[in-house]
Structures are given as C-alpha cells and as structure tokens.
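Changelog-linked ticket: calcium ion example.
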Amino acid sequence: MMTADGRPFENQNKDICLLYRHKRYNIKVEEKYGLCNNNLARCTCGLRIQAGRNVFAIDGCSRKAWLIDYVQCEGINTLRVNAKTSSVWEIITPIGTTIEVMINPYSETYRWFMNVQLFMSPRDFNATDGLCGDYDGNSNNDFGNAELHKNNHW
Ligand SMILES: [Ca+2]
C-alpha cells in the first residue's frame, strides 16, 4: 500500500481500518480484511464509502456473494457510483475524491478480495487522515494517527 503522499507501507491488520477520512466533511472510506494467499496474508474483502448519510458498500467477506449496493441511503444521494466493467467500480464523493475498486483481481486465489485505489481531490489537501495519510505533500507525517485506524463498527 502507499499513502497519498507516496509513503509505502504494509498493512496486515485483522480488523477494520479507516482508509481515508476528510476531517471537515463527513466523508470516509473503511476497509475490512480477510485471510488470503493460502491464509498467509490479509487482503481487503470489504469496503464502505460514506458521504453524509449515504453509505455504499462493496463486500465479499462472506465469500458467498458480493454485496454491491447502498447499505444506507437517506436524503439526497451524494455519491456517484459507476460500474466501469463487470469487475471495476468507480465511486466519486461530493468533493471529487474518487475510489476505484477492482473485485476478484488477478486470479482465483484472490476471489472475494479487491484492489482499492483512492484518488485525492484538490479539496482533500491538508484535510485528510486515515491509512492514506495526512495528504499535505509531506510523506514523513503519514502515520501520526494510528489510533484512528482501529474501528469497531462496520
Ligand atoms: Ca503527509
């Protein structure tokens, strides 16, 4: 993995992590992990993207079926969701942050997992935390909020 400012890191967390949070707006992206690669590693099996009262989920953690839908949708929908192909989804937040998700990447080994890429918007500058880091052009301060990464609700 790599932070928005380009600092590489390894994440083998067993729980749910906050991948991205905008500190002023109620926008965040959380990831859930499951055992992969013959139980030797942990990979992302679930993703929840929240903007205000709307939450869109892509979740294969059950290993039975993909949940790809809104799990909360109240008021005006603030997320734009595009299915680019049958396995690539693009979710765009109200401020232009773009999350691209490829499900079942590479091979059968990674069935029920996903690759996640997050593209910051100009309005994210100096306004984010989470595993993607404090997006401010300085890669040395990207891990100052480790306590934020553990989260008990899903
Ligand atoms: Ca930074």
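Closing comment: Example verified and attached. The first strand starts at residue 16 and ends at 22. The CA atoms of residues 4 and 135 lie 6 Å apart.
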